[in-house]
Amino acid sequence: MLRRQSGFTLVELSIVLIIIGLLLGGILKAQAMIENAQIRSDIKKLNEFKIISLLYKDKLSQLPGEDDAHPGRLKTVLSTDVAPDEGYFFDIYQAGLSQSLNPLPNIGTAFKATWGGSSGDNYGLIAGENQLCITQIDVGLAQYVEAQLDEGSRTGGDVEYTLNGSQLCMKL
C-alpha cells in the first residue's frame, strides 16, 4: 500500500520564493525611486530659491531676509521657525514668490537662510557669502547633491557640506 505524503514540492516552494524575491526587488526599487525623487525635488528647490533671491532683489532692490544691522547680509532664519514675521522665507512668501511660509526639504530637517561668517549653528559654511542650507542632511546625500550642483569638492565652489551631516550650503 502506498502512503501519500502531504506538503509542497520543491518546484512549488521554488516558485513561491521567486515570487517573494520579485516582490521584494520591486519594493526596494520603488524605495530608491522615491529617494531619488526627493533628492531631485530638493535640488530643484535650492535652484528656485537662488532664482527667487535674484527676482526679489531686482524687484525690491534688497535681498529677501536682509539683516538691517548688516546691509547685504541675510539674517539667519530656519524654515521651521513657527509663525515667522521676518527673514528670508517670510519675505519671499509676502512678495508672492513662494507658496509656502515654511518650506521643508525632503532630505534634511530644515532650510536655513544665513550669512557665512564664523562657525556655529547661526552661520553658513561658505565664508563671506549669503547662502541657503539644508540642515541635518545625510553625508552621502550631501555629497550627491553637491556633485549635482557643483564641481564635486566638499569645501570649495558654490556648494559645500560638512562631514558630520550638520548642513549643506549653496551660495545665493
Summarize the structure.
It contains 3 helices and 5 strands; from the N terminus they run αβαββαββ. It has about 170 residues and is α+β, with helices and mostly antiparallel strands.
Please provide a written account of the structure.
By secondary structure, the chain is α+β, with helices and mostly antiparallel strands. The protein has one domain. It is built from 3 helices and 5 strands; from the N terminus they run H-E-H-E-E-H-E-E. It has helices at 10-60, 88-94, 139-149; strands at 77-78, 110-115, 130-135, 159-161, 167-171. Strands 1-2-3-5-4 form a 5-stranded antiparallel sheet, covered by helices on one side. The longest helix has 51 residues, at 10-60. The relative contact order is 0.12.
- Based on CA atoms alone, the radius of gyration comes out at 24 Å
Mean pLDDT: 89
Measured by DSSP, the beta-strand proportion falls in: 5-15%
Largest beta-sheet details: 5 strands, antiparallel
Q: How many extended strands?
A: 5
Assembly of the depicted chains: single chain
**Helix vs. strand class:** alpha+beta
Number of helices: 3
Q: Could you spell the SSE succession in H and E letters? A: HEHEEHEE
The total tally of domains equals: 1
Question: What ranges have pLDDT less than 50 throughout 5 or more consecutive residues?
Answer: none
Helix content estimate = 40-55%
User: What topology, given as strand order, has the largest sheet?
Assistant: 1-2-3-5-4
**Distance separating the two termini:** 86 Å
Shape: elongated
